[in-house]
Automatic annotation (TrEMBL):
GO biological process terms held by the UniProt record: regulation of translation; translation
Quaternary structure note: Part of the 50S ribosomal subunit.
Protein known as: Large ribosomal subunit protein uL1
Function: Binds directly to 23S rRNA. The L1 stalk is quite mobile in the ribosome, and is involved in E site tRNA release.
Keyword RNA-binding: yes
Length: 231
């Protein structure tokens, strides 16, 4: 452990379940690296994602954004090219864009495609899939409504997916955000996750919740605090 991490670690009671406000403020306080750290939330859910009826995947728009400049590329043709460019897409293309990616270009964060371009994008599956960049209609990245898709992503739309252990990890914003902005993003994320509960999931749904800065220790939140927050 570095001295910086040890100092941050001593501020956190590892056995305590914190209230939301205290946890978020502590996450900001322990963000002492030389860059603007991301505040993240990790949630362990009581689901069995090996069963089709308990898989959880979707996207949520953080009302206060992520604090990150997201680079979006769009696969489109015809009039949709102009729509994507007008919406703020960083790069728009077709076959030539696919070739560029095959050659090793990855200067982007999100890929959006119109349905009629998936025959081109589909061939990039072995490249984009492992990096979690493959467009998917379930999260709104395969769509003809490019204006809305690009604007949502630029505004702070992030994807989530429960892994094999039922864990979801999402950014809440930067340590430099105001507490109110982080709190609003946190509330939106938790409302979305709770609403995504599969009908087939039995027993406790919210098992463990923790927030942390990129280089900081995890700070556990009382699951009952989420229930109280959501009413």
């Amino acid at each position: 452990m570095s001295k910086r991490y040890k100092d941050a670690y001593t501020k956190v009671d590892r056995d305590k379940l914190y209230e939301i406000e205290e946890a978020l403020k502590l996450a900001q306080e322990t963000a002492t690296a030389k860059f603007d750290e991301t505040i993240e939330v990790s949630v362990k859910l009581g689901v069995n994602t090996t069963k089709n009826d308990q898989q959880i995947r979707g996207a949520v728009v953080l009302p206060k954004g992520t604090g990150k400049d997201v680079k979006v590329i769009v696969f489109a043709q015809g009039e949709k090219v102009k729509e994507a460019e007008a919406a703020g897409a960083d790069v728009v293309g077709g076959e030539e864009l696919a070739e560029k990616i095959k050659e090793g270009w990855f200067d982007f964060d999100v890929v959006v495609a119109t349905p009629d371009m998936m025959s081109v994008v589909g061939k990039l599956g072995p490249i984009l899939g492992p990096k979690g960049l493959m467009p998917n209609p379930k999260v709104g990245t395969v769509t003809f409504d490019l204006e809305q898709a690009v604007k949502d992503i630029k505004a702070g739309k992030v994807e989530y997916r429960a892994d094999k252990g039922g864990n979801i990890h999402l950014p809440l914003g930067k340590a430099s955000f105001s507490f109110d902005d982080l709190d609003e993003n946190f509330r939106t994320v938790m409302e979305t996750i709770v609403k995504a509960r599969p009908a087939a999931a039995k027993g406790r749904y919210l098992l463990n919740i923790a927030v942390s800065a990129t280089m900081g220790p995890g700070i556990k939140i009382d699951p009952q605090a989420i229930i109280r927050m959501l009413g």
